[in-house]
Amino acid sequence: MEKIKIGRIVNAVALKGEVKVYNYSGYRERYEELERILTDDGEYAIEKVRYQQQTVILKLAGVDDRNAAERLKNKDIYITEENLLPLPENTYYIRDLIGLSVINEEDGALLGTIKDVLQPSSQDIYVVALAGGGEAMIPAVSEFVREVDPEEGCVRVRLIEGMIEG
How far apart are CA 148 and CA 160, in angstroms? Predict the structure, then answer.
């Protein structure tokens, strides 16, 4: 069973066993749709979800006082693959992009592989480990990324002069 990290417990809240969660999923309401979460220590049913500004606060079954909540501090929160939300068309989970081959659309040459996806703003940036050494950053916009094909294991890109040195 593959676990997917969606957050981290960063602190205890008040005295009744609630925990403060740093949410990695980009969709904080996600926790309202889950019945349970996983940590490295085990599985917990979610009894209640509330918010403090942008922070998610969870009340977990069996975590009934501050001491129990403190023991969960700095624990990662996971879900299983079956709890993943369906994505809109032409949208991919980062984990599905890492390792894909990057192919130059113009000549079919292998440029390298995606090693990371940065999300600094409204558009993602693919960090590509170049086949000849070094790395390049390619904005994930239709002008440059022509096709993403996880089944075939590749991303086809159109480059502009100077985008990749070498």
Answer: 18
The reply to whether 89 falls in a domain is no
Residue pLDDT, tens place only, 96-143: 889 999 999 989 999 999 998 887 777 888 999 999 898 999 998 889
Instruction: Give 39: exposed, middle or buried? Use CB within 10 Å, 0-12, 13-18, 19+.
Output: middle
- How many structural domains compose the chain? 2
Q: Report pLDDT digits (tens) over 46-65.
A: 999 999 887 899 999 999 99
Pick from 24, 57, 83: which residue ends a domain?
A: 83
Q: Between vectors from CA 120 to CA 118 and to CA 122, what angle results, nearest 5°? A: 110
CATH code, domain with 136 = 2.30.30.240
Q: Report d(CA 68, CA 82) in Å as an integer.
A: 28
